[in-house]
Amino acid sequence: MSTRPVHSAPLARSAMAYVLAGGRGSRLMELTDRRAKPAVFFGAKSRIIDFALSNAINSGIRRIGVATQYKAHSLIRHMQRGWNFLRPERNESFDILPASQRVSETEWYAGTADAVFQNLDIIESYGPRYMVVLAGDHVYKMDYEVMLQRHVSSGAEVTVACIEVPRMEASAFGVMHVDASDRIISFLEKPADPPSIPGRPDVALASMGIYVFETRLLAAELRRDALEPGSSRDFGKDIIPALVARGTAVAHRFEESCVRSGEEAEAYWRDVGTVDAFWQANIDLTDVVPSLDIYDRDWPIWTNGEVTPPAKFVLDDDGRRGMAVDSLVSGGCIVSGTHVRRSLLFSHVRVRSYGMVEGAVLLPGVIVGRHVRLNKVVVDSDVVLPDGLVVGEDPEEDARRFRRSPNGVCLITQPMIDALGG
């Protein structure tokens, strides 16, 4: 749990958060056919990017830039509607920065570092002393002020936020090899044999894709890298390894700055980058005491505050009872004559009679017909499920009709429904 150090003026006041939100997230399959991964819905009310943005606001950062690229319309629309409260007259700013060939008429963002480099003039016009570079596609709560304090006190040129993971699972990440003082000795991208933390042979430090720099140093490094032939213009592949080689990079443990309410037993961070991980992280929120407390009023997760009517549950007849148990149900939903168990219903979902919905993540605007039985599914937004549809009972039939994950989660989109015919 974070304990904010005493400091006369919070460093967050002198910082700008720069969120990298241009990636597709192809492992989410059809969920990202129409939207970038940071725009994917999460937690019955939010979108994934809301976590990084809320962390910035709650940490005291009032200058924010968001770089977008892949299929950004829904992401941009969400931010325009939900994040338009920052005001320049209060020395606040919120810039949406789509890839727009600002440096070259032939180049979009070539990599994560290039997404910052192409907007250096905008960043420097605000004059932030520090830059907090964030990935926009992870679910977690973190106080960036604590990391800023750590960065300044260490004298490092870059501070890299890291999570502890079982060593042999770290091969899916960029891994920090550190000494006893957490100075980064080497950075290894998805190593087959990840290095362990000193004194803990079974644990490794994986990069969270969160970096703190002094702005002047970052600008100089980005300009240097832009002139390097063969550079991939990427933080993890180019910028960070160069600073590590100079011996000026330190690791920051997520446990030192994670934000936990009294209900959260562990430091929570999730990359919901696969259909299975996305389904599981959402369904976990239905636990009596979930690992992630989204009800924490001391660290709210801001989002587009859509005006919706209350959720409604109707009919109370045997065999036709509208009810939800161990579930999250958003505004605008109507559950009519069907049992909903251990599920998340985003806004404006309609569930009609004589069915059973269990282990379902139903994105906004889904309509579930009569006599529909669902188990272990993710249904994309605005999908209309026809009367009598059964999913989650016959694996072979599910795999023939829908996208079935390795762990048996069925992803359903409207084109898949249309392909059924009739």
Q: In CATH, what is the homologous superfamily of the largest domain? A: Spore Coat Polysaccharide Biosynthesis Protein SpsA, Chain A
- The Cα radius of gyration reads 23 Å
Please name the CATH architecture of the largest domain. Answer: Alpha-Beta Complex
Helical run tally: 10
> Mind describing the biggest β-sheet?
9 strands, mixed
- The pLDDT mean sits at 93
Specify the overall morphology. globular
CATH fold node name of the largest domain: Spore Coat Polysaccharide Biosynthesis Protein SpsA, Chain A
Distance between the termini: 54 Å
Binding site for alpha-D-glucose 1-phosphate: 109, 174, 189-190, 207
GO molecular function, one term: ATP binding
EC number: 2.7.7.27
Function: Involved in the biosynthesis of ADP-glucose, a building block required for the elongation reactions to produce glycogen. Catalyzes the reaction between ATP and alpha-D-glucose 1-phosphate (G1P) to produce pyrophosphate and ADP-Glc.
